[in-house]
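Budget justification aside, the reviewers requested a transparent look at the raw inputs and outputs of the sequence design task funded under Objective 1. We therefore reproduce one unedited record. The lines immediately below are the structure tokens for a 224-residue chain.
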């Protein structure tokens, strides 16, 4: 990363913390964005990069949340690559844009990411909800209701994965998670960040944790 920074391909900053010093955080700078656009054979004028967004990231109160979500998908991508599998990953901004409030599909959903893993003999697509422990039971129920509506459009994915900050929060929240018409599974942050492909995902109405590709997939709602 230091070499990329010295080449001007990435920018770096240290967020303010009450005590001590935070590690360096890196974002694409314009030369790096131009290189990525060229590798993807995309005209830079159509490439979704704006340098001003770097400063939005630096001052965002959601910085830690964003870093941990990106860390989850980065670890998942590395694990897939080592196995010869494929991960398609959509970040929070683009994931939310797919369900813009101007659409007529019902209430807006704002997942923290969307993933699709393609292995040799199985594929699973999922929404990620990276919980920060700030939502009460009713808010979690409402969130599931919105995902249920999305599932009925025929555009829903296979699963909804919740990552909770602690085992206590996971136990408490699971009591508030009704069925969504498709698979819902939960895990705890430190387990997922250690090994997202481990047996860390606990489906609703189940007492055994499973690997992500072994989750039992429910038939999706087809109702109106």
């Amino acid at each position: 990363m230091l070499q990329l920074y010295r080449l001007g391909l990435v920018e770096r900053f240290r967020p303010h913390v009450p005590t001590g010093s935070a590690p360096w955080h890196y974002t694409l700078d314009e030369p790096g964005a131009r290189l990525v656009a060229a590798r993807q054979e995309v005209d830079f004028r159509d490439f979704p990069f704006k340098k001003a967004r770097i400063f939005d990231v630096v001052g965002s109160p959601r910085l830690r949340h964003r870093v941990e979500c990106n860390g989850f998908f980065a670890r998942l991508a590395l694990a897939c690559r080592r196995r010869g599998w494929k991960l398609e990953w959509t970040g929070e901004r683009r994931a939310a844009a797919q369900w813009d409030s101007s659409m007529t599909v019902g209430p807006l959903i704002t997942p923290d990411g969307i993933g699709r893993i393609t292995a040799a003999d199985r594929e699973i697509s999922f929404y990620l909800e990276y919980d920060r422990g700030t939502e009460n039971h009713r808010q979690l129920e409402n969130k599931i209701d919105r995902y249920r509506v999305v599932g009925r459009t025929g555009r829903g994915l296979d699963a909804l994965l919740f990552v909770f900050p602690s085992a206590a929060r996971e136990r408490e929240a699971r009591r508030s998670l009704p069925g969504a018409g498709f698979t819902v599974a939960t895990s705890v942050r430190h387990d997922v960040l250690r090994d997202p492909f481990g047996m860390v995902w606990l489906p609703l109405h189940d007492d055994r944790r499973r690997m992500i590709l072994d989750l039992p997939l429910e038939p999706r709602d087809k109702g109106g």
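The CA atoms of residues 126 and 159 lie 5 Å apart. The longest strand covers residues 123-130. Computational costs for records of this kind are itemized in the attached budget.
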